[in-house]
Design goal:
The structure is a single chain. With 250 residues, the protein is an alpha/beta fold. The protein has helices at 16-27, 39-51, 66-80, 104-129, 154-172, 198-207, 217-228, and strands at 7-11, 31-36, 55-60, 85-88, 135-140, 177-183, 238-241. It has one domain (7-238): NAD(P)-binding Rossmann-like Domain (Rossmann fold), CATH 3.40.50. The protein is built from 7 helices and 7 strands; from the N terminus they run βαβαβαβαβαβααβ. A 7-stranded parallel beta sheet has the order 3-2-1-4-5-6-7, with helices on both faces. The longest helix is centred in the middle third of the chain and has 26 residues, at 104-129. The two termini are 30 Å apart. The model has no long low-confidence stretch (mean pLDDT 93).
Length: 250
């Protein structure tokens, strides 16, 4: 198994992306600690993992709260003896409108949320990884060179995450800590039920890709497990492109 005896922390573990990664990590042998604000969703993912023979624990944590993130991460490290992987997939609360129509608060919100949460969770994990000389910080949703109209502050937030990934990789690399971002062209399965034009959006995502399909939640989990494993031990300050060719010339 790719992650046998590893300890993984997943913020946003009750969401579709976080849950898919948590299930994949557990399937590959990791001991998984799920954090999020909605306990019922976390418990549902944990139940699935346990039913499949894996190990999972849950905790209510606000990934935007410095004290909560530090306390949770310290608790995991104290109980498990280590943290090998930290993955953050919380939503960034973006409002997608043309820039000429969006408010300052709406524009800034995803930028503030993305940079704050990724900084807090990465910093908390690195503080426990660095003394051991190993670890992986895994981010989701990097920028890429392309953009489309009407995204509000989302694309700026994703680009900021890429800058943060490079900065963390440069500073944590000497301590054996790797930092990797996963980039997709969109995951139709992760869109909430009832969203307007969901089928049309899914078709557009698939149609824009070289493979004429979109990545699935299973794809996300599988690639995340590989990127977090020792098989990817030479990969850092890197972006793993799982857009099926929707994002090119990265």
């Amino acid at each position: 198994m790719l992650l046998e005896n590893k300890v993984a922390v997943i913020h946003g573990g009750g969401g579709s992306i976080g849950g898919a990664v948590a299930r994949a990590f557990a399937r590959e042998g990791a001991r998984v600690f799920l954090a999020g604000r909605t306990r019922d969703k976390l418990d549902e993912v944990a139940a699935d993992i346990r039913a499949a023979g894996g190990t999972a624990e849950t905790a209510a944590v606000d990934a935007l709260d410095e004290a909560e993130v530090d306390a949770f991460t310290g608790s995991v490290a104290g109980r498990a003896g280590r943290i090998d992987v930290s993955f953050n997939a919380i939503g960034v609360q973006d409002v997608q409108k043309p820039l000429a129509e969006i408010t300052v608060a709406e524009f800034l919100r995803p930028i503030e949320v993305a940079t704050r949460t990724q900084f807090l969770t990465a910093r908390a994990a690195v503080r426990h990884m660095a003394p051991r000389g190993s670890g992986v910080i895994l981010m989701f949703g990097g920028g890429g060179p392309q953009t489309v109209p009407g995204l509000g502050g989302l694309k700026v937030a994703l680009d900021a995450m890429e800058s943060m990934r490079r900065q963390w990789a440069a500073e944590a690399g000497p301590y054996g800590v790797r930092v990797v971002t996963m980039v997709t062209g969109g995951i139709p399965e992760s869109m909430p039920d009832g969203i307007a034009a969901k089928d049309e959006i899914a078709a557009a995502i698939a149609g824009s890709s070289l493979l004429q399909r979109a990545a699935t939640l299973a794809d996300v989990g599988n690639v995340a497990a590989f990127a977090a494993s020792d098989l990817a031990g030479t990969m850092t300050s890197a972006t793993v492109n799982i857009s099926c060719g929707a994002i090119v010339d990265y």
